[in-house]
Structure formats: C-alpha cells, structure tokens
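re: ur msg from earlier - yeah i can do the flavin mononucleotide complex, just paste it... oh wait u already did. ok heres what im feeding in:
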Amino acid sequence: MNEHNGIFAGTDPFEIAGRWLAEAEKTEPNDPNAIALATVDSEGLPNARMVLLKEIEKDAFVFYTNYNSAKAQELDSAHKAAFVMHWKSLRRQIRVRGIVSKEDGPGADAYYASRSLKSRLGAWASRQSQPLESRASLMAEVAKVTAKLGPNPPRPEFWGGYRVSPVEVEFWADGAFRLHDRFQWKRRNADSDWQVQRLNP
Ligand SMILES: Cc1cc2nc3c(=O)[nH]c(=O)nc-3n(C[C@H](O)[C@H](O)[C@H](O)COP(=O)(O)O)c2cc1C
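and the outut:
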C-alpha cells in the first residue's frame, strides 16, 4: 500500500514539489530554488553544479543558463539530466531524473525580460565556462555590451532555458534515528502514468 499522506500527499509530483518549494521559501535563508544539476560529459564523467529552478510547470522543471556553457554542451549531447534540491531548514530533499529539451522560445524571452538590466547585460558579457583572463577583462566586456545594447538588450541567442521532463521524482524527508521517509514516483516516459512506491531509507 502506498501511504503517501501528510507532506507526501498528492496525485501529482509537480504539485507536491511546488508545495515543498513554497514551504522552503518561508524557511530557507536564501535561494530555496537552488538545485544541484548533474550532467554527464562525452567520456561519461559526471558533472554537477548549482543552478536556480525558475519554473515548475504542469509536466516539467525549467532552469536558465548559457547555451555555450559546459553544462549546455553536456545536456545537448546526452539529452538527460538529474538534479537534487535540499532544504536544510526543512530537512527534505527532492531528486529528479529525466529527459532534457531547450526552452528557447517565448518562455525564455519572458524570463530574460524579467531579470534586472545588469543581469541581462551580464548574460551578454559572460562566455560562461570559458577561460577568463582577468576580472577586469570581464568588466570591460560588460561596459562594451552596455554601450552597444543600451537599456533594452534582447535575449542573447546563446542564453535560454532547459526543461527537464522527469521519469523519476523522489521525495525524501528526515525521520528519527535515520529512518527517513522516501517516496519514489516513476514513469516510463512523459505519456505514461506515475507509479509510486515507498523506498527503504
Ligand atoms: C546558488 C547558485 C545558483 C546558481 N544559478 C545558476 C543559474 O541559474 N544558471 C547558471 O547558468 N549558473 C548558475 N550558477 C552558477 C553555476 O553553478 C555554474 O558555476 C555555471 O553555470 C557554470 O557551470 P558549467 O561550467 O558546468 O556550465 C549558480 C551557482 C550557485 C552557487
């Protein structure tokens, strides 16, 4: 029997994830939407870094980055990713594994437009993951794009979102004596139904 009730209750993992994130927004000192994003490079060597989860959609999770970055190259070749969110204040984590596609349309334009001007210009100035000679050369690049693009820069073609469409979502909550609660939601693909099972801690 799947007794996923209380904080685990629900028929939709995106809804539960949204609920947990909303709780974390009230308790975490900063960046409650930070996720550790794992990718794999062309040699099969895993890679991980933090990014900010910007949207929980009806059927996917979305974050934004530079399309020339190391992570983007890894995502574009493997089309797969995993991420974990951990909230120290709540003692909970959510793990996600899935298939990745680009969000480089109106959603990306809208999110880019919602960022501060400095962040928008910063996206233009940074050749993310490439070697940088000095801090001064980055600041010079910022000054250059600021002069060139003015107060309304368009979204760079090399900057946008990725959408993770999960096949696995696991909700974990701390329990006494390390007897934690884990509920794993699994589906074969985005069109199939979720199966939920409790896992040993
Ligand atoms: C809390 C936190 C949030 C971050 N959010 C983002 C983000 O949303 N997008 C991004 O591209 N990098 C973000 N970064 C920087 C990444 O961790 C990473 O340094 C950068 O994306 C380059 O990674 P890569 O070389 O593996 O592509 C964040 C870092 C931290 C610590």
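cool cool. The beta strands are 34-40, 46-56, 61-66, 80-87, 92-103, 159-173, 181-186, 195-198. ping me if u need the other ligands too
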